[in-house]
Amino acid sequence: MTAKIISGREVAEQILTTDLKNKVIALNEKNIKPKLVVVLVGDVKASASYVAQKEKFAVKAGIESEVRRFKKDVTEDEILTVIDNINNDKSIHGVIVQLPLPDHISVAKVLNRIHPSKDVDGFTPTNVGKLFLGEDTLVSCTPKGIMQMLASTGTNLTGKNVTVVGRSNIVGKPVAILCLQQHATVTMCHSRTKDLNAKLADADIVIVAVGIPKFIHGDQIPEGSIVIDVGIHNIDGKLCGDVDFDSASIKASSITPVPGGVGPMTVCALIENTIIAAERIG
Ligand code: NDP
Fold this sequence. Notes:
Structural class: alpha/beta
Radius of gyration: 19 Å
Strand content: 15-25%
Distance between the termini: 49 Å
Bound molecules: NADPH dihydro-nicotinamide-adenine-dinucleotide phosphate
Shape: globular
Largest sheet: 6 strands, parallel
Strand order of the largest sheet: 1-11-8-7-5-6
């Protein structure tokens, strides 16, 4: 079997230029102009390219975006004041703080300062709690994008076995909750899981977010399963994921590529969350 490629790039383009663009037009007619602010601290090369992609996607959907840049020696108090000002600015509907932050700034303190209604990354305790309870909320972007990619394959998750490898707060845990909400049976694995291969063996869907290049190989992938590779690594100038694409794509029925898979969907979900926030805040 050679797997069908689930192109995040194509799914994102479709969502951005149809659904989201139409929503923005409807909002503009009510004189609401969705606006995203990205807070960027320091000079991290990877952050700069993520931020550039966010700006590009904002343009595609027709929303405003602004990057507020700060030197790496900016104080925590200064950043907290920036967040307070954004919270109180009615022209701004969504804010994200690009991670990582320098060590002298507490990530938790800064993220918790964002008003939940503008927390388009879905990281605040309020929004995470609502997700857990199944309430309407701003769902964090990578898990949201993964669910949209699964939906694009026409897969009904009811009764499906989903194995999630990685239990981070931003990917593994929330995507597991979202799969549960769609009635899948979810197995969560992490660094202390015993016999990972056994946990993968009966998976219909495998979601991998471990942060180790080519960690999962084709011989661990069940024949005909759907594979979502969240990882992204630059090895000698070439990008790869947490899954060994060549061997896994021989076993899977569908697989996400790296690049062009989960990455663009994450950014698309961020733009969508900004539009949702604008619809709610007005
Ligand atoms: P974290 O480092 O926060 O979490 C990694 C998880 O993998 C942990 O739960 C860890 O387990 C688990 N793990 C580590 N080693 C093993 C192992 N040997 N066996 C099983 N599980 C293991 O990573 P993130 O979730 O933040 O990110 C994962 C990857 O996805 C990274 O490459 C990151 O760059 C990428 N990413 C990509 C995004 C995109 O938009 N494309 C967005 C977010 C992330 P334990 O908890 O026990 O330590």
